[in-house]
C-alpha cells in the first residue's frame, strides 16, 4: 500500500509528553507549596486518566477535564483549590517546558515531509499543542494541525476523523495512514473511520481482539519501511 497522507498523533508519538508532564507538574505543585511526590502523582494520574477516558467516550466535555482535574486531585487529599487557576498555570508550564522529541522523531518527520503530506491529529488544547510543536522545531513540517478542542470532538470518534478528512484537500482513505501510540484513541479511531493505522508499540503491549492495527512498529524509524521517504511527493 502506498500512503501519501500521514496523520500523526503528537503526545508520546512525536513528543515526550511524559517528561514534559513531570517537569510541569513539579513546577505547578511546587508553586502552590506542595512537593510533587510519586504518591501525589499516583493520585493525580488516576483522576486525570479517568477524566480523559470519560471525555474520549463522549460523557463529559473537555472543559470539565481541564477545570476539575486539579481540584478533584487535591480534594482527595483534603484540600480545596481553584481548579481553573491551577489548570491555566499548568497549560502555560506545558507550553514553555522542554519539548523533547521521541527518539527518531525529528529525523523521520524531516525525511517524510519531502515526499508525503503530514498532519497532526491530537486530543489536546489548540494553543498549547501549537506552541509545543513550534518550540520542538517540528511545526513547519506539517500541512495542518487538527486538535480536539478546535474540532469539538475527540479521538477516537468518527466525528473527529470525518472533520479531518473533510478539511484535507484531495483526501483519499486508501492513501492515508494514522500513526500513533494509543490503541484506544489512534488505532480504534482508524478502525472506526476506515483508515489504515500504524501502532507504535514501544512497551510490548498486547492488542485486544476488537482493536487491530494495520501495522505495528516499535520505533519511529521503522516507519520508513512502510512509507519510504525517497519517492516523489
Automatic annotation (TrEMBL):
Family annotation (InterPro entries): HAD-like_sf, HAD-SF_hydro_IA, HAD-SF_hydro_IA_YjjG/PynA, HAD_2, HAD_sf, PGP-like_dom2, Pyrimidine_5'-ntase_YjjG
- What's the domain of life for this entry? Bacteria
Q: Name one Pfam family in it.
A: HAD_2
> Which SUPFAM superfamilies does this chain map to?
HAD-like
Protein's name in the database: YjjG family noncanonical pyrimidine nucleotidase
Query: What species was this sequence derived from?
Result: Paenibacillus lignilyticus
